Amino acid sequence: MKPIRLFAAAALLIGIGCPAFAADPVFPPGMRVGLTPLVGLSRAKTFVGFETEDQGVKVLVTELPAEAYGEVMNAFKANPAGAGGVKPESIETSAGLAYYTAESAKDGPTNVRRYSMILPGGTFSGYIAVQVPENAGKIYTDDAVRQMFASAVIRKEVPVDEQLGLMPFKIGELSDFKNVRTLAAGGAIILADGDETTGFEPAPFMVIGIIGSAPAQPDDRGRFAQQVATTIPGVRDARITVSEPIRIDGMPGYETRVDATSGKDNISVTVVQWLRFGGKTTLRIIGSAPRDVWSKAFPRFRAVRDGLAPRG
């Protein structure tokens, strides 16, 4: 693993006398990672994080798998001098010891300074990437960015209402699921009885999101549904047992059921996939439960499905 290059690649995807700090840490909507942004930075319009009014300075905030922090820490310890003239640094935060890099690069014809930091979050890793164009470097200096990194904080939970508000659809029924977690900012959400520590597969859970495509013709819906069902993550030895058209809230849909094996403990599960068609996108609803609790889980899945509504 080459963490410095990993950080640089992530920074590329997001395309700051010394500025003062705002009063308190700010969490981008849906994120468990927050920081105290430097003055001049406000909520970004096209990505999760912060930016200046001219969109020149960008601060990307996201979450990575829990093991990412350990991998970076081990790589930094194995090569404390860094590589390619970029020396990794450590910094104390309220969440624990974080690691960051700073390097000069180019964004097209523009000279920029890029910074990347990873910090421990317990069940996840926090990640912050900053890009500062050369013309802002005298204000948003290395020391200023380091101070901003040091302000990074972790919250254990994101309020459920905050997460639901990010979705492009309304969720009117949660069916007593214990944990709610957005999987992608405004793109997908998981409702689960388990959590990231125990794993989701041993208990019923649902994943709801939008697919950015739809079958061209009504006759293509069955084939489309079965193809999409083969991409359900985490299932093995899948066998389709049901695949049929249905109506969902008055809209055309398709139900597909799959018997499969899931999780590190090879749990026998039954999975239902509902697709609700309408326009150029497709609402996808997945429910998974161990086979021995399927009969109790299915009504909960259906109640969540029937409680979904367009936003606006």
* Spatial strand order of the main sheet: 2-3-4-8-7-6-5
Largest sheet composition: 7 strands, antiparallel
> What structural class should be given to the helix and strand makeup?
alpha+beta
| Rg over C-alpha atoms, rounded to the nearest angstrom | 22 Å
Instruction: Return the CATH class of the largest domain.
Output: Alpha Beta
H/E series, N to C?
A: HEEEEHEEEEHEHEEEEHEEEEHE
Explain what the structure shows.
With 312 residues, this protein is of the alpha+beta class. The protein has 2 domains: 3-154, Protein Transport Mog1p, Chain A (3-Layer(aba) Sandwich), CATH 3.40.1000.10; 160-310, Mog1/PsbP, alpha/beta/alpha sandwich (Protein Transport Mog1p, Chain A), CATH 3.40.1000. Helix content is 19%, strand content 41%. It has helices at 3-13, 66-78, 142-150, 160-164, 221-229, 294-306; strands at 33-34, 42-43, 49-51, 58-65, 89-93, 96-107, 110-120, 124-133, 153-154, 169-171, 179-184, 188-192, 205-211, 235-248, 251-262, 267-278, 281-290, 308-310. A hairpin with a 2-residue loop joins β5 (89-93) and β6. The protein is elongated, with a radius of gyration of 22 Å.
How is the topology of this model organized?
Blueprint: H1 3-13, E1 33-34, E2 42-43, E3 49-51, E4 58-65, H2 66-78, E5 89-93, E6 96-107, E7 110-120, E8 124-133, H3 142-150, E9 153-154, H4 160-164, E10 169-171, E11 179-184, E12 188-192, E13 205-211, H5 221-229, E14 235-248, E15 251-262, E16 267-278, E17 281-290, H6 294-306, E18 308-310
Antiparallel strand pairs: 1-9, 2-3, 3-4, 4-8, 5-6, 6-7, 7-8, 10-18, 11-12, 12-13, 13-17, 14-15, 15-16, 16-17
